[in-house]
Amino acid sequence: PRYLLVFDFDETIVDENTDDSIVRAAPGRALPESLRQSLRQGSYNQYMQRVLAFLGDQGVTAGDLRAVYEAVPLSPGMPELFQFLSKHRELFELVLVSDANTFGIEAKLRAAGVHSLFRKIFSNPAGVDKRGYLTLGPYHSHKCPECPANMCKRQILAEYLAERAREDAEFERVFYVGDGANDFCPSVALTSSDVAFPRKGYPMHRMTQEMEQKQPGAFRAAVVPWESAAEVARYLQELLKK
């Protein structure tokens, strides 16, 4: 493949934050206030571990959660983008880097018929324990001051590129499609031949604009904001014509 295409998941591939979506499986489709307040005490990953334990205690099964993940809508234009990428599989290598969890991501990608497009999925490990509860762990630990304790996407991307280089895969360009503050960190490490696709009006987009105002030229990648992922497909289509 000539190009590496890196995707985020929540509010990028899918049009919701799936950590919020799964609350629909709870009795009354809501979490107790005390549980919601506990997010303020630190790690988001640990908070989601508590949310999953609460759902398990309420009798919510892994199957119930899978059904919620499968039903989460794709973002506008995402089916067109995947259609384009499946036509050009030999040119694009796809990886997914997400602070969600492997269980939900794989359920959704399979339901959407696009799981096989991805060479690798980097996310927080999730599985079903003896009680039938969905459990969650952190992805890794790192030293980046900008990112949540359980995941630095810049480190994941850097390690992946190094690993692929050892396997003699050289990419002409890296494309990064995301929306969140944790997608800004890896996109700052992109080079001038790469392209960042921030979702319009989301934190990654605002942060690229702020960096460009404060330190012109410091953000090296081209920035192509999108409202519909069909715009990303059109950009890549034009690139292939050149």
Describe this structure in words.
The active site is at 8 (nucleophile), 10 (proton donor). It comes from Neodrepanis coruscans (wattled asity). With 242 residues, this protein is an alpha/beta fold. The protein folds into two domains: 3-14 and 75-126 and 137-241, HAD superfamily/HAD-like (Rossmann fold, 3-Layer(aba) Sandwich), CATH 3.40.50; 19-70, no CATH class. The protein contains ten helices and eight strands. The protein has helices at 18-21, 33-37, 44-57, 62-71, 78-87, 102-111, 153-166, 181-188, 203-214, 229-241, and strands spanning 3-7, 92-97, 118-122, 126-128, 134-136, 173-178, 195-198, 222-223. The strands form two sheets. The protein has a six-stranded parallel sheet. Strands 4-5 form a two-stranded antiparallel ribbon. Helix 9 (203-214) links the parallel strand 7 and strand 8 (222-223). The longest helix is centred in the N-terminal third of the chain and has 14 residues, at 44-57.
